[in-house]
Description:
2 domains, eight-stranded antiparallel β-sheet, 8 strands
Amino acid sequence: MIQIRPRFRLLALLAAVALSAACDDGRALRDPSPEQLTQAAPDSFTVRFGTSAGDFEVRFIRAWSPLGVDRVYHLTRHGFYEGAKFFRNNPRVVQFGFSGQPALDSVWRANPIDDEPVVGTNRRGAVSFARAGPNTRDFQLFINRIDNPDYDSCCGGGYPPVGWITEGFEVIDRLYGQYGELEPAAQGRIMAEGNDYLRNRYPLLDSIESVRVVR
């Protein structure tokens, strides 16, 4: 009879746990249940984003935008933003959110969240959801590089902040920004072709390499 050493049993157990966690993440992102779509986030939590330009941390505050922060909590816990590119970078904002996988992005594009009143303010360092009309917040976020108070009320309801950068804002200033505003059809191309399009057309864009809820 072949005996399995304790060390190998432990390694096998750890591998099984890792595989199970990956499967759970996949289901939570690609086929979220109604309960997952409405699960409340903690009152506040911090996420560390590891990027190709360095790390930064964002403190998310549920009181500012309950639906928005619930969505961020779900996506960050399950690794949605790992691989996302900072595809828009101008003097006012840096924007990211497309996972780079069209099939995955389409799941969340089909599950937008309702609009909410603006409680925080779009000051330098604040993080808010992008939107393209009423009730269209889904997965795209932008970081305010400067104070943008007009974003609190413009565009049919404003852009409610969901959190702010507490560490590493210098990383935001280091992100590659020479492309500026991409061609008008770029977001449609990203949605349809994912990171393949961005790598071919805008190869120097920085990206998110890891996402972890740390506090």
